[in-house]
Amino acid sequence: MVNGSQKHSFMLQQYGLCKSNIMSLIIILERLLWVTCNFYNARIYLNTDSFRRIGIHLSEHRRRMNIEKRNVYEYAVDLTGQTAPVYVIQLVGHSKRVLEIGCGPGSITKVLVQQGQCRVTALELDSDSIKKVEPYCETAMQADLNSEEWPHLLDGVEPFDVVVAADVLEHLYDPWTTLKRMASLIGPNGYLVISLPHAGHAAVVSCLINSDFEYHDCGLLDRTHIRFFGLKNIQDLFAQANLKIIEVRYVITPPEETDLAAHWSRLPAKVQNAIKTSEYANVYQVVVKAVPLDYPGDALSVAPPEPELPRAHIANPVWRTRIGQHLSPQHKQRIRKGLKLLGINL
Asked: Which CATH architecture describes the domain 84-304?
């Protein structure tokens, strides 16, 4: 009886292939798949277990692909878009002294410095990313946020106007303590700008229903995510750090437009419709501006955004232009709640 390993070896010999040129074939195949998947906005992953059965160790293959493949954290920010990086940049403001924690290769940093005239100090774990971001920073230092020692890197440094952590806390073992430490680094009238993925998105729910909670290289189920937050958990996260949310932005993405679209499409239409009844269903990311509890002003509730459809029927959007520009986010929220009781959505 021929076992699986012998069968693979026989097939390789039959077609005149050896392990060295199989490695080249794998690299070519993955490159073709990568191009094809990007063209169709999908993700396909090679099954490494299949290659292990024929005795191929993929450590060298992974190393080479990591060098060749574009860093998912390295991107150009389109300031006309409605994305988390854009909202982070908007909430930071201009001419601020910024501490950017987990800056990556500097995709947001560049815009803060070049267009926002900010002065940035950056903390990042990856040494290659530090080399890329250094030219834009006053200081760039290597830091492990899972260590208790990282705040000491900033001993003797003046407090910052803004502390930024864009999609960082979900990668940490103890985001609650880390957020408290971040808050201790802001000065008078300072604030934090934090973005987080929303684990209550309809696409994630579809994975749970399908019993297929598959991690990916990026997105809502990034394989490096350790912690997951629903909107209530985000509210609690800041409350436990003695912070109050004063402004919030949402990245809205339908499940069929996410990297988990295949899981969503497997659900029956009735199940999809039931999931979509949740007002949180399309919230992909949440971007928060927060200050210490003792700062003046009211906290803002992290409530999901109102559907866009009713707004489309407003012929003259006075609320969002002439009136809205003079109101704080807290006042807008109170007015919306009051009008909602009357059946009016703005």
From this structure: 3-Layer(aba) Sandwich (3.40)
